[in-house]
Design brief:
The chain is of the alpha/beta class. The chain has helices spanning 23-33, 42-46, 50-61, 76-90, 110-122, 135-143, 165-174, 189-197, 207-210, 215-235, and strands at residues 2-4, 7-9, 13-16, 37-41, 65-69, 94-97, 126-131, 150-151, 181-183, 202-205.
Length: 257
């Protein structure tokens, strides 16, 4: 089981709800993924009047836990205000905290992120910070009150997959007791399996599923990859070797009669 802020979850895949071709496809993708947590933008819920209400009704009908996010926020003040409004709208202390620092890469402003995390944690929020794979930043976020870390493996929506296995592996090693969720940059099910094999606890996906030719089938494929990667990590994988090792005895000769 995956435990996030005291909540036990069976699925290790969290799913975003933006960019789907239709509400019906979004519903099918969530169900196919088995995800028990979906991220929702306050801006989407607040925009569009009736469309926003219909979207929220769909999310409620899925029986999933909502993780509101502060997507699009570029300052601490904006992120904190958005989080406070999200708590009122969605009636949850959970918040996926984003403070964007670069318009092109959408890389987090890690200085603002730590500041906003500390402010929100002091107000009783349970913060899921979208961060980089920097160990020092991770330490500061934990000191600020975060009990979950969500590092990227590549820029949001890039679909490039893990760019720095060494950094991700180091993060897992330095924070053995902290739930780590790879957020952003995964493009293929094999990418998800790869980070799960590194020992990460879960993945959060959106673009790779929503923009697929068949989002429902892709959601199912990612769910299977996540499960396989986690099972492989728990089973104890054979480490790569630079020499051949025979699987059958090489001493003696076979005797045939």
């Amino acid at each position: 089981m995956l435990t996030l802020y005291g909540t036990e979850l069976s699925s290790r895949m969290l799913l975003g709800t933006a960019q789907y071709p239709s509400p019906a496809i979004l519903e099918g993708a969530v169900r196919a993924s088995g995800a028990e947590v979906v991220t929702v933008s306050l801006r989407r819920e607040s925009a569009g009047g009736g469309a926003g209400r219909q979207f929220w009704s769909l999310i409620q009908s899925l029986g999933v836990r909502v993780l509101p996010n502060t997507a699009g926020c570029h300052t601490v003040k904006e992120a904190v205000m958005t989080a406070e409004m999200a708590r009122e709208v969605f009636a949850t202390n959970w918040i996926k905290l984003e403070v964007i620092g670069n318009h092109d890469t959408l890389q987090p402003d890690v200085f603002g992120l730590v500041e906003a995390a500390a402010t929100l944690a002091s107000q009783g929020f349970e913060v899921f910070p979208y961060t980089t794979d920097d160990l020092v930043v991770a330490e500061r976020l934990i000191d600020a009150g975060c009990r979950v870390l969500m590092p990227w493996c590549a820029p949001i929506g890039s679909a490039m997959g893990p760019l720095n296995d060494t950094a991700l592996r180091s993060m897992r090693g330095h924070f053995p007791d902290t739930p780590l969720i790879v957020d952003a940059g995964l493009g293929r099910p094999s990418h998800a399996a790869r980070v799960m094999e590194l020992g990460f606890d879960a993945v959060l996906l959106n673009t790779a599923v929503a923009k697929a030719g068949d989002p429902v089938a892709m959601a199912r494929a990612f769910a299977q990859a996540v499960e396989a990667g986690h099972a492989a990590y728990c089973a104890g994988m054979l480490e790569p070797r630079d020499v051949a090792v025979p699987s059958t005895p090489v001493i003696g000769r076979a005797v045939f009669s």
